[in-house]
Amino acid sequence: MATAVTAVPWLRTEEQDKTVFRTCPATGLKVDVAAERLIIANAVAAVVFLLIGGVYALLMSLTRWQAVHLLPANWFYRSLTAHGFDMLVAWIVFFEVAGLYFGGAIMLNARLVQPRLAWLAFALMLTGALMVNVIVLMGEADVAFTAYVPLKAHPTFYLGYILFAVGALLAVGLFFATWVVARAERRYTGSVPLVVYGLLTAGVLAVYTVISGAIAFIPAFFWSLGWMETYDAGFYRNLFWGFGHPAQQVNLAAMVSVWYLLAAITTGAKPLNEKFSRLAFVLYLLFINLGSVHHLLVDPGLSFAYKVTNTSYGMYLAVLGSLIHAFSIPAAFEVALRRQGYSRGLFEWLRKAPWREPGFAALALSLILFGWMGGVTGVTIGTEQLNLAVHNTLRVPGHFHATVVSGTTLAFMGLTYYVIPLIFRRELKLKSWATLQPYVFGGGMALVSIGMIASGILGAPRRHWDVTFAQAPFQVALPGTIHLTLAIFGIGALIAIVGGAMYLTVVLASVFLGKRQEASQLQLVVVPAPMVAGNGHAGEADAENHDSGPYAPRGTFIIVLVFLAFFATYYLANWWLLGRLWGVG
Amino acid sequence: MDVQNAQNAKNAQDTPNGQEGQLQPVRVPLGQVVFDEIFLWFFLSLTISMVIYNIWGLMDLLRTPVVAP
Question: Which of A261, A272, A503, A573 has its Cα between 20 and 30 A from that of A45?
Answer without folding.
Answer: A261
